[in-house]
Amino acid sequence: MNDMRPMDNAVTDKTKITARDVHVHYGTTHAIKGVDVDIADRTVTAFIGPSGCGKSTFLRCLNRMNDTIPGALVTGEIRIDEADIYDPRVDPVQLRAKVGMVFQKPNPFPKSIYDNVAYGPKIHGLARNKAELDEIVEKALRRGAIWDEVKDRLHAPGTGLSGGQQQRLCIARAVATEPEILLMDEPCSALDPIATAQVEELIDELRQNFTVVIVTHSMQQAARVSQRTAFFHLGHLVEYGETGKIFTNPEDSRTESYISGRIG
Amino acid sequence: MTDISNDTPARGGSLLVTDARTKRRNRAETRFKAYGIAALAVGMAFLVALLWAILSNGLTAFSQTYVQLDVPLLEEKLDKDGDRDPDKIAKVSTFGYKPLIEAALTDLVAREGIETELDGKALTKILSDSAAAKIRDRVLADPSLIGQTVSFDLLASSRVDGYLKGRVSRESLARDKNLDAAHLDLVDTLREAGAVEKRFNLAFITGADASDSRPEQAGIGVAMLGSFFMMLVVLILSLPIGVAASIYLEEFAPQNRLTDLIEVNISNLAAVPSIVFGILGLAVFIQFMHLPQSAPLVGGLVLTLMTLPTIIISTRAALKSVPPSIRDAALGVGASRMQAVTHHVLPLAMPGILTGTILGLAQALGETAPLLLIGMVGYIATNYPDGVAEGFLAPNSAMPAQIYEWAKRADPAFYERAWGGIIVLLAFLLAMNLIAVLLRRRFERRW
C-alpha cells in the first residue's frame, strides 16, 4: 500500500460517471430526489448519510440493480463514459459486467473458492481455456488480497472462509470480470475491525485500476478510504466534494450536523 | 388477558421467594405443556391403533395355504392319440383335468391312511378352483409331462386357508355350503403329514387380481404396474410443468393483479377435492379426447392435474428459501436472470423441489377418488399389460383402487387382502418419503 492519505490525495479530473437529475421512486415512496453528481475516474468516492437517506439506492442505480426490484422507477440521466446506461439499447447484463458490485453482507456462492471467482469470467467468455481461467482467478484473488490465504485450498467451499475473507473473496469475484467501476454497498458493516482494516487497505489499492464508489455508515471509514465524499440526506445530495473539505470545512449546515454527530 | 392485577410483586422482595404472579405464570406454562403432551399422546395412540389394525388384519395376506399333490397326468385323459400335438392338448379344458385331481386326492387320502366319508368330488373342495388351470398351464407349457406323475403345489381353497389362519372354524362352517367340518379334519391330518402347508405368498405381491370366487389367487401385482405407469405419467408431466411454472412465477413474472390472481388460484386448486379432478378427467380426457377408459395414461393425466398445485407450491417455497443475496451476487457479476436461476438458485432449491415432488407423487399414489370416475375402480386387473404401450393404454387398476375393490367384495377372504394391499401401498409411501428425506439430507447445502 502506498502511503497516500485522504488529505493529500490528488484527484484525477476525468469524469467516469455523470448523473443528472436522478429520481427514484419505489411505488409511492420518492427515495431519490434529483441527484446531480460527477464521479471521477480512478478515485474512491464515498457516499455517506443517515440510514434511509438513499445512498444505497443511488448506488444501485449505477449498475441498474434497481431493475430487479419490483416497482422501482428510475428517471433522469446516468452516463458512464458518456453512454446513458438507462438507454433502452443498454442490456443491464452487459452493464453489470462493466460495473461490478460488492454487497453489504458477504455473499459467496455455496461453491468452491475457485468457482466463485471463475464464474463471472466463465459466463462472459473471458477465458479460452483452463490455463487462462486459472490465470484470471489467480490475478483476481491477488487483487482481492486473499490469494496467499486461499491458494492452497482453492477448491474448498467459499462459504467456509471467515467473514473478512469472504468479503475479500467477493471483491475478487467482482474484479475478476475486469470491470471499470466497482460499487461497494457498506462492504465492511458485517466485518470486525481487523477484517475492516484489511478491506479498507484493499480498497485503496483497487483505486489504481478501478473507479470505486463506496457507501458507508462510518464517517471514519469514508475519511480513511475516499478522495471524494458525497453526503446524502432524505433523498437529496446535500454536499459533494473533496473528502478533506467535507470533513473539515463543510458548507452545508446539515453536513456539519451529521459529521459532528448531531443528526443521523 | 388482564394480568395487570393488584398483586404486583412488592419491590425489593427476596429473589428466593417466588411471588404469586410468577407462580401463576409458571402454572400456566406447566398446563400448556401438559396439553401439548396430551395432544401428542392422543395422536400417537391413534397411530398405534391404526398400525396395529393394519398389521393384524393384513399380514395374513402375505402367507397362503398350499396343498402338495402328486397328480398323475394320464395320457388317455389328456392326449388320447398320444402324438403330443399341442393343438389337441389345448382342446382339453380344465374340466378334463378335474378327474385327475380327484384321483390324486383320493390317492393321497388312501396313501396317508386317512378315513373320511368324503368322496373324490367333495375332496376337491379343499383346493382352489384355480388348481385345474394351474396344472393345465403346466402341461401346455411342457407336453412331455403327460404320462408322468408330477408333484404340484396347489393353492388351497380360501376356506381352508382361512381355517389355517384362524378365520374359519367348524362352527362358522355350519352354514357354509363350500366346506364341511369333515374337510377340516382331513386338512388337520394332511397338515400333520406335511401335504398341507402355509407359507409366504409372493404371488400376493406380484400376482394378478382374481374373480370373486377365487380370493386365494388374488394379488396386487397388476394393480401395482397400473400405479407405476400412472406415476410415470405424473412424474414426466408434473415435474417439468410445475417447476417451469414456479420458476416463471417466482423469478420472472411481474407482480400485478394477474399474477396475484394466478397465485390465489393455484392455492385454491391445491384444496380442490380430488373427485372434482376425476370428473374433469372424465369429461376432458375420455369424453372429449376419447382416450381409453380405465387406462393408466388417463389416470396419470388426472393425477397430474391434482399434483401440479402441490409441486408448484413446494417449488416456489424452495425457490423463496434461497437467500436473495445469492441472486444479487450472480446478477452483480453480470449473470442474466436465467443464468442466476439455472446456475445458482435452482441447484440450491433442488432438495426442496425434489422433496415436494416426491410428496406430491406419494399423495397421487394413494389417491382413489378420481380413479372412480375414469373407470379404474371396478376393473378386474387379471392380466399383465403386454409391453410399455399397453401399460399406459390398456385398462388397468391401481393399488388404492384395487384395495377399494377388494374391500367391497363379499368373500371375507378378500377383506384380508384389502388390508394386505394397504400394507403394500404404505410400504411404497414410506419408501418414497424416505427417499425424500435422504435427498434432502444429501443435497442440503449451507450458505
UniProtKB/TrEMBL annotation, chain A:
In terms of Pfam families, this protein maps to: ABC_tran
Start and end of every ABC transporter domain? 17-259
Which GO cellular component does the record give, naming just one? membrane
Q: Does the keyword Membrane apply?
A: no
Q: Which domain of life is it from?
A: Bacteria
Annotated InterPro entries: AAA+_ATPase, ABC_transporter-like_ATP-bd, ABC_transporter-like_CS, P-loop_NTPase, PstB-like
Q: Which UniProt keywords apply?
A: ATP-binding, Nucleotide-binding, Phosphate transport, Transport
Q: Which GO terms describe its biological process?
A: phosphate ion transmembrane transport
Q: Which SUPFAM superfamilies does the entry mention? A: P-loop containing nucleoside triphosphate hydrolases
Q: What molecular function does GO assign, one term?
A: ATP binding
Q: Which NCBIfam families match?
A: 3a0107s01c2 (TIGR00972)
Under what name is this protein listed?
Answer: Phosphate ABC transporter ATP-binding protein
Q: Which organism is it from?
A: Limimaricola cinnabarinus
UniProtKB/TrEMBL annotation, chain B:
| Segments passing through the bilayer | 34-55, 220-249, 269-291, 297-319, 345-366, 418-439
Gene3D superfamilies per UniProt? MetI-like
Q: Which SUPFAM superfamilies match?
A: MetI-like
| Keyword line | Cell membrane, Membrane, Transmembrane, Transmembrane helix, Transport
Membrane topology is: Multi-pass membrane protein
Which InterPro entries does the UniProt entry name for this protein? DUF3333 (IPR024573), MetI-like (IPR000515), MetI-like_sf (IPR035906), Phosphate_PstA (IPR005672)
Q: Name one GO biological process term.
A: phosphate ion transmembrane transport
State its location(s).
Cell inner membrane; Cell membrane
The principal localisation class reads: membrane
A Gene Ontology cellular component where this protein is annotated is: plasma membrane
Question: One short Pfam family name for this protein?
Answer: DUF3333
Q: What is this protein called?
A: Phosphate transport system permease protein PstA
Originating species? Limimaricola cinnabarinus
